[in-house]
Structure formats: C-alpha cells, structure tokens
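Field reference: sequence -> structure
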Amino acid sequence: MENLSIVVLHYKTPDILAHCLYRLRRYVPKAQLIVVDTGGDLASLQERFSAYPEVSWCKTINHSMANGVNQGLKRAERDYVAHMNADLYIEAETFPRLLEVLKEPDVGLVGPLNMTPAGQPQPMGLLYHANYRRLRSKRDISVSWLAGCLQVTRRDLLLEVGGLNSSMRFYNEDIEWCWRIRQAGYRCHLVNTKVLHLGGSATPAKADFLIEGYRGGRVLLMNYRPRLMLHSQMHIVLLIAAVLRRWGKPLEKEAFEVIEEMFKRQAFDESPFGATLAENNNDFLRD
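Structure field:
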C-alpha cells in the first residue's frame, strides 16, 4: 500500500487512537499516515506515540470535522487518499478491497460496511437500510452517499472536486462531498467489507450538535435538491419540532425550540457554533 495516504482525525481519545494506529501499522505498514489532532494537546500525543515515527502529526482548531480532514488532505501525497475517524478499526482486507473497487475509472469514492460494537450495520436511517439488503450478496453497490467515518478517493479526483465543505460544522459534510463527487460524473460505492466503528466516542451530548445537523441538512437540500423537496422537508421538520418540544427528552426540547425558530425564520447561514465546536455563536438567531 505504498500508493495510499491515510488521514486520521482525532479528538481527545488517545486510548482509542492507540488501537487504531496499531491496526493501521499492522495492515497497511507502507501507507503514509497523517494524524490530525483537534484536541489541543499535540505535544503529549507525540510523546505518547513516539514509537510511531512513521506518523506525521498535524494540529488544528476544533472548527469542524471537515476542516480537520481538509488539513490532513492537504498533506496527502499518494495516489489514493483515505480519511477516517480514530474510532474506526480496519481489518487486513479493508484497504485491498476498497482500492480494488476504486480502481474502476467511473468510481470516485468508496467506503466500507461500518459495523457497531453490537455487530449490526451502522444505523443511517430507514432509507439507507435498503442499501445493506442490496449489499448482502454483492461485492459492492452504487449508493447516493457514504458515511464519513472512512472514505477513500483518488488524489487526482480530490484536486478536481476539492475537499469537504467546512461550512457544515458537524454532520452532512460527508453527504455533501459524495453528492459533489457524483455531480462531477463519478459514482460512490459501498463495499462489502466490514470494519468496526465505535461511533460517538468524541461527540458530546449537546443541543447545538442536533441543531447544526438540521441546519446543515437544510443547506444541503437547498444546494442539491428541487424546491418541492425543500417544501416537504419544511413541513416535516416543523411537525417533528411541535411534537418533540412538548414530549421529547430535555435535550430534544432545547434543540427543537431553536430548530423550529430557525426554520420559521429561514435563518440557515449561521451555525450555532462559534470559532470551535466547544464555543457558542452568540449572534445565532439574534437580530
């Protein structure tokens, strides 16, 4: 795998990162490894992982997943480029199977079958579950989008379409990248090779993350889908908000009060986050 660069995005989970790097060294020892740390304590990480001289380290602010990934992608030098979360554990066959599919000229992005610790395919909505059924007896299938916990593309395509959209601060950036790649004439393929994704290991339970998910989802549809779908989404979201504001969990009540106001005002330009994902945007939804 000398022609492969791998960007690993990390945020304050060094024990998980340790197992991730162990498996990368074991299964793709010749790949270029780049770890992007958004947790702010790069020096201690470099000291802890001094036994991994092959790793290149990069420190950046915790602005968004997209920004962190892009910092790593800028440093990728090989023909094939992967980005992945630190809480994803590959197997021996992961990258050989992904690259086998990616070598097809009309395929622009590939991703594996992400499994939860409970041994089930990662939940990505009812509509996406149909892809899992289609994949059971096939090597790979074309899909609308791939989860961002591990995606692999070619460096020439990366230079053509650009990196992830960092205006989407949390969630939706992986979908937007897939749709942009498809818009450029390539296909996204889900490959029948399993990896373990712990999921949510560095995501706090805060209302802002749910709010940002709905904001980014709206922006995504505004850029890529017809007006009729936007109209339908508006009514669905307002209905969900009306229900969860009254009967939801405390975090849902807090989030959907803001989401309802955001959709009524059509205020999607500003994120609820400030300079980092740990800071609030004090001007969000304020006149």
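Note: The chain is about 45% helix and 20% strand.
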